Amino acid sequence: MESFLSLVDGFATALTPINLMWSLVGVTLGTLIGILPGIGPALTIALLLPVTRNLDPTGAFIMFAGLYYGAMYGSSTTSILLNTPGESGSIMTAIEGNLMARQGRGAAALSTAAIGSFVAGTLGTLALTFLAPLFVKLALLFGPAEYFSLMILAFTTVSVLLGASKSRGLAALMLGLAFGLVGTDILTGQPRLVFGYPSLLRGIDVVVVAVGLFAVGEALFMASQARLRSAEILPIKGSLFMTREEWRRSWKPWLRGAGIGFPFGALPAGGTEIPTFLSYFLEKKLTKHPEEFGRGAIEGVAGPEAANNAAVAGVLVPLLALGLPTSATAAILLAAFEQYNLQPGPLLFAGNSALVWGLIASLYIGNVMLLVLNLPLVGLWVKLLTIPQPLLYGGILIFSTLGVYSLSNSTFDLVLLFIVGFIGFLMRRHEFPVAPCIIGLILGPFAEAHFRRALSISQGDPSVFVTHPLSAVLLAIAAAVIIVPIVLRRFKHV
Amino acid sequence: MKRRTIFASLLALALTAGFATPALALDDLRIIAPAGPGGGWDQTARSLSEVMAAMGAKGGTVENVPGAGGTVGLAQLIDQEKGKPNVLMVNGLVMMGAILTNKSTVTLDMVTPIARLTGEYEVIVVPAASELKTMADLAAKLKAEPGAVAFGGGSAGGTDHILAGLVAQAVGADVSKLNYVPFSGGGEALAAILGGHVVAGISGYSEWAGQIKSGELRALAISSAERQPGIDIATLKEQGIDVDLANWRAIVAPPGLDDAQEKALLETVDAAVKSDAWKKVLMDKNWTDLYLPGDDFGKLIAAENVRTTEVLKGIGLVQ
Amino acid sequence: MNTKQSIAGAGLAIGLGLVAIASVIGFETMQMRVPPSYARVGPQIFPYIIAIGMALAGGYIAWKSYRGGDDVIDDVEPTDWKNVGIIALGLIAHMNLLRPAGFVPAGLVLFMSVAIAFGSRRYGRDAIVGLFLVMFAYIGFTYGLGLQLPPGILKGLL
């Protein structure tokens, strides 16, 4: 009840014309940078920090939050239409979404992404409003041992992405894991696989690999295939928006995606990518249309898109309640709080409740704005596909290289992008799946660091992974995910 | 009182001189922040550049060159900016550890030291529910069973790690048995401490000030030599552990400058640091003023290098 | 040369390439100097596991491609290597021109190379669209967001 009253006050703050304007600026800018591969919300907010120093903090945070949400909305657009994810949280969306677009259902994919993002974003915000203390407790239960077990569970999702040829899928996974090894070893500070290049000490950024494998790899592949170039992509086939059938198949994945995304966002080190892996895995396992996965299944778009938006709401839980940043963007938001001499945490709720609740209320408003902004644009976005390919892919590479260069103003990253792009081209040419590579790159370093941290804390005793109850439960689920289908198959054959 | 008036008149002099002095007419001044946007080095570079711009310096652009604890930026300063009189770079204690652990071929004795600007002190904390009530409890446990005290903190070889090593050394524990668990940024270390997954944590004070004030973390000690105004935490020295450590941030120039160029940069920085605008920056950002220009700063770098090398060797990170 | 044979050759090359990468990872990891740690598991274990996994996957692919079978890398559409080469050259030119010449000329070269590789022969239209796009990106990101893009030869003009 107390939260409810505070929320009403929050709406009073967020609904002032000036704050509505900041929200609109944030969501619009967020949608734009979400669409551009390589340029993410973390970088944008960091660059905006000096500009916003003299603004009223409430307005600035309302804008930043809108920007964060907006980036998640926008990133699905290029994933679906161009097979070029704007953010790493939308990589899973590209798999089924782009296949849908190639069949003329791009508008439906965009719609389910936008509505799913709205549903999940709103549910996530509700959870943030009323259940934050609960999730804060849950988040703190996760230590290194629990994280490692969670990563093992997340690795089981790779199984559905390996594709027809398991050896190729595994090779892609190993390649991703190998990319993840490069750089300074976090636990000992020792350089690993850097071959004497200081620029490699920082590691290979996920953005470089994602943009390389998707945008650059895709451009090279399209250019190399005369058939693909001449193939007409139908911008729209059938009705513009979602059919009744598509609605029916979307709503459950939205809710499940929200359910997975929010808690993950709330976990320190959860992020927006891993819940999208899990959501895709779950939808593929639960669908009544398994034959459509790999050919453009709407569930594979609805679930992950909902998951990444709910995760954004989740990220705000530990940030606001504990002052604990759980993603790169959250870390920049924390720096923004410090710029205003505000210290997130329990004291913030007490001392600056107008700001906190105004911010939370603005999330509801921002979500509505994004839906209103994005749904009518769906028809316009699909027109992107009617831009002549030479201009379209030229533009994609301009923004890809811009985004990668701006990661650290280094041409070295452009060299890496070129190499990874060529690998992506070879992978497409020889039908290696790309997604396991990204999963390996994201999960591998996490899994290793937490494994070794857990062992360091236990002074080398490996039993921690099963004596910690939560860790044991997660490992058991992971084991079940692997074993149960095998057992079921045996039964069917007998 | 006398000191204050001298200081004030110097300030006034610096301010009036600020607009006229040729030192500030440096063309196209660039400040390299050897880290990504948003962090401490970046903020230092941007604040300094703004203060200098307000005093009439031209250009004043900040260039982010992140990577490898700042050593990528350091390499650029030494290799590509050599002899350029209009380039400055922010650096700090963290870079020293990174140079050692990365076995970097470029080091801080190659640059032209200008001045130490600001700093921050480190705190050692335990979760509120911990049985360790004082620094003495922690020291006793560390001495008896070093492996059982898992410290959570920032990157390996960074300031937090260095402090853990110095404390272990000072209390007579076996430094080679220090159990330091590095976490990547983004609050992971904080979560591990709040959740009780590690025994103690080390970080810059401001990062965890909120949790300390709200009582979720108990601060056992601060790494400053003397008590800090407004911070009710006993120093390590007060509690019989002879360690003080500041996570300082400084400004350096490329190698190969002649005396006149070095002097010009020193004067520019001096004027900026003594301006009211810089004082406001320090106050707004809660940075501790540790201004130490010229040769004294050069000596500090040398002394810190000896101490850091010794402790990192003891830990086993550097051979 | 028939396609089938050259494709199996590609599979063999990819498989052996993976084995080669795996050996590099293994070899580099052996060179590491490892500080003591309570974890017992140092920074070398994961690289070894990954190297072994990659060598196995690569070896399997190579063997299958050599022997033939249902899991070979086959049936690839004819590849237009000339177009791949044009974009590759564009990317290489871009990374080399970016700092000395600046974002706008480098981007324009890249844009044109992609357009040509995609079969466009309307150079005038492409150049105008490309120039607009690159200038728009440069101005938008430099003045809107304060991104540090190299101005190059247009320094002072934009």
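qc> The helical segments of chain C are 3-30, 45-67, 81-101, 103-117, 123-144.
qc> done
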